[in-house]
Amino acid sequence: MGLRERLLAVQGDIAAACTAVAREPEDVTLIVVTKFHPASLVQELAGLGVRDVGENRHQEAQAKAEALAALDLNWHFIGQLQTKKARQAARYASAIHSIDRERLIDALADSRDIAAGERPIDAFLQINLTDDPGRGGVVPADLESLAEKALQTPSLRLRGVMAVAPLEEPAAASFARLASYSERLRALAPDASAISAGMTHDFAEAIAAGATHLRIGSAITGNRPEHG
Ligand SMILES: *Cc1c(COP(=O)(O)O)cnc(C)c1O
């Protein structure tokens, strides 16, 4: 199968997973994760109609976004983001899915000139679904305080929650917890109803749990090239 066939197959699987739980495929945004793949693959995807792409390393994302600026794609930053790289990432990223600490919000605070008409960055609060504090994401107990901080930051538009399902438990159980955190966030910010969840191996479970933004890589791009 080539890239086009894999993309069509995943789009078909997404539609089927939506139908199975009486959801509309239009309510689900597919972000194709292109990390470790060259800009030429992103260009090919754009030729197939893909508008949303995801990257998890700043330098790589920056280089590709610059090379492909003419395509006007939506670049979603989905990896751990160093505070000192935040302002640079804000130049090309239309969305950041990995906001997990107040210092990162501080670093993004004046990254967009809202008064001059610049669009705010779509902000997803990443939640750690494990007990390991070394994993990315805010601990659930701190979700509300982080959300308050984001809501007070005009350069950010708080969209919702994001998580990666841990390997240690069935994805459906993790995504059920994520859905409950999404409810907590909506109690504070009714518009922040997006749920960024679902990867190659668990996107059907994520759709069943209400995911609105899927981050799918290898099922579409094929295996990632070796990286050191
Ligand atoms: C790599 C990555 C994905 C995509 O993973 P696949 O298993 O290739 O679909 C999604 N989300 C995050 C945060 C990632 O780093």
TrEMBL record:
Gene Ontology molecular function, alphabetical: pyridoxal phosphate binding
Pfam families referenced in this protein's UniProt entry, alphabetically: Ala_racemase_N
Entries under InterPro entries matching the protein: Ala_racemase_N, PLP-binding_barrel, PyrdxlP_homeostasis
Keywords, in A-Z order: Pyridoxal phosphate
Cofactor section: pyridoxal 5'-phosphate
Residue ranges occupied by any Alanine racemase N-terminal domain in the UniProt entry: 27-225
Top-level taxon of the source organism: Bacteria
Modified sites of kind N6-(pyridoxal phosphate)lysine: 35
Its biological purpose: Pyridoxal 5'-phosphate (PLP)-binding protein, which is involved in PLP homeostasis.
Matches recorded under NCBIfam families: YggS family pyridoxal phosphate-dependent enzyme (TIGR00044)
Family from the record: Belongs to the pyridoxal phosphate-binding protein YggS/PROSC family.
The protein, known as: Pyridoxal phosphate homeostasis protein
Species, as recorded: Leucobacter insecticola
